[in-house]
């Protein structure tokens, strides 16, 4: 069973590698400057959102908002 899982995962890795190579090797025009600007803004915004969510997670955990309610 473990060998089947390893073969399946290696096959998925090979398929992902082939797809990535075929996407990079496409002939065509290079990305314009506006595309790089959009890519940088999108990546920066994603990092800001991720950091903000992690800050909220730690803040919530430290303040005890994640604890189950205690009824008396």
Structural notes for this entry:
75% of the residues lie in helices and 0% in strands. It has one domain (2-63). By secondary structure, it is mainly α. It is flat, with a radius of gyration of 22 Å. The N and C termini lie far apart (51 Å).
Could you list the spans in which at least 5 consecutive residues all have pLDDT below 50?
none
| Beta-strand fraction estimate | under 5%
> How many strands, what sense, and barrel or not for the largest sheet?
none
Which structural class should the secondary elements be placed in?
Answer: mainly alpha
What is the domain tally?
Answer: 1
- Report the total helices: 2
Rg result: 22 Å
Annotate the secondary structure layout:
Blueprint: H1 2-24, H2 33-63
Relevant terms:
72 residues; mainly alpha; flat; 75% helix; 2 helices; 0% strand
Short note summarizing the structure:
Helix content is 75%, strand content 0%. It has two helices and no strands.
